[in-house]
Amino acid sequence: MTCEEVKRCDLAELYARGELTSQDASAFEEHYWQCASCLEELDAIQTARSVLTRRASGRGNATPWKWAAAALLVASLGAGALWTVRKGGEPKLAHTPVPNPQTAANRYAALAEFELPPYQPLRMRSSSARDAALKSAMVPYLDGRPIDSIAGLRAVVAQHPDFAPPRFYLAACLLQAGDIAGARQQFTRLAAQEDSVYLEESLYLLAQADLLAGDAAAAQRSLERVVGLGGARRAKALQRLEKLAVNR
């Protein structure tokens, strides 16, 4: 199956509506796990259908988790900072320390911007044990408790080390939990997979973790790779590179 065939026959939309034959659905599933653009298209369709369903049922929209300047997360803060997450709301610092703005680590950390990646479970006709394990591990994440997903995601990664989705969300959860070293390790593994659909986002979030760790050189390398990919994160990466140059 090719991307041209997917677009010509509108297979992503038909798949989301459950209107493909079992054989065609299986073929499409094999294709989109290897194709970033088709996976992105399917995810967008399924997300839109989910939002419309929630609106129709009167449940409204879910509030996205967003926050900027994650710099005060851990870099030079030790255990003094603790993130708390409200269901359907934004994370807040239970305790806000006052770092020394003159240190290089804090200057770089202040440039970091972290947004917890959205997760929309892909609805497939046939679900493997691997997919079911990922879906189960992500239940707390969807409920506004990403840190509680860490143990389950670690287990999935251990059993399926080449399966990118659990490693990506594990890295994001570790960053949310303040385990910057652990997050960098996982994002670095993903960044080495040149054909991964998570490559661009992994590199961008790796750069944010690098900044939080005060490693400006590593952050620059990651951001330059993002720019080179020419994807959706390019503009953001250029902005971060410009600010990084000013603060070095």
Can you describe this structure?
With 248 residues, the protein is mostly helical. It is globular, with a radius of gyration of 19 Å. It is built from 13 helices and two strands. A hairpin with a 7-residue loop joins strand 1 and strand 2. The protein has a two-stranded antiparallel sheet with strand order 1-2. Helix 6 runs antiparallel to helix 8 and helix 9 packs antiparallel against helix 10. The chain folds into two domains: 54 residues; 186 residues, Alpha Horseshoe (Serine Threonine Protein Phosphatase 5, Tetratricopeptide repeat), CATH 1.25.40. About 21% of the residues have low confidence.
What is the secondary structure topology, with strand pairs?
Elements (H helix, E strand, L loop, with lengths): L2 H6 L2 H6 L5 H11 L3 H21 L26 E2 L7 E2 L10 H6 L19 H9 L1 H4 L7 H10 L4 H14 L2 H12 L7 H14 L3 H14 L4 H14 L1
Helix pairs in contact: 6-8, 8-9, 9-10, 10-11, 11-12, 12-13
The N- to C-terminal Cα distance equals 48 Å
The CATH superfamily of the largest domain is known as Tetratricopeptide repeat domain
| CATH C-level name of the largest domain | Mainly Alpha
The major β-sheet equals:
2 strands, antiparallel
One letter per element, helices H and strands E, the order comes to: HHHHEEHHHHHHHHH
Task: Summarize the amount of helix as a percent range.
Answer: 55-70%
